[in-house]
Amino acid sequence: MKLIFVGDPMCSWCYGFGKEMSAIAQSMPDLEVQVVVGGMAAGSTQVLDDAAKQFRLTHWARVEQMSGAEFNREALMARKDFVYDTEPVCRAVVAARMLAPGVDLLKVFRAFQRAFYVDGLDTTDGEVLAEIGAKAIAEQGIAVTADAFFEVFSSDEAIDAAQQDFALTRRLGVQGFPSLFVEVDGKIGRLTSGYATAGQVTRALESLAA
């Protein structure tokens, strides 16, 4: 049985779900988890104006209330001419997967989330992403430099691999993030769509396993 997690590091509900997803993985250490990046706003060219920022803050408040996740609102409001393009950060997750196949990709995914939502870093900037990604991989005992990360991140292979994840997301019929699917004997079924607690997910998985 394999759990497929479809999300986007710059999706606020995915960020709120981060602790739950980590708890699921920790409580079921033998469960294979596949991370698929969904490209929520991949390729967006829309500059966030004040109205768009306020719209996101409304969502953030709901996520915070539901999950207790920490948000740096000041950093969002202070951004100038910020384009909410999630392709770079999704590609950075894919680059980590390419660079270090044995890495715990959920931890890398969460490092990018924290960088954006708490540290207020620009996770649309490749060099910033390379620093975050290399550090997250190195913390798992795998030596990777930011330069090496950036080289892979910038490659046509990483761009194509991210697009393949986006295509898989569409084939799975994902309507919102985060989404969880279960693959059993080669057959994939939807488990949850949207925010869920670790308890809800683990009970569903245990039922399926039984």
UniProtKB/TrEMBL annotation:
Positions of the DSBA-like thioredoxin domain: 3-187
Pfam short name (any one): DSBA
Entries under CDD domains matching the protein: DsbA_FrnE_like
Coiled coil start-end: none
GO molecular function: oxidoreductase activity
Name under which the protein is recorded: DSBA-like thioredoxin domain-containing protein
Source organism of this protein record: Paraburkholderia steynii
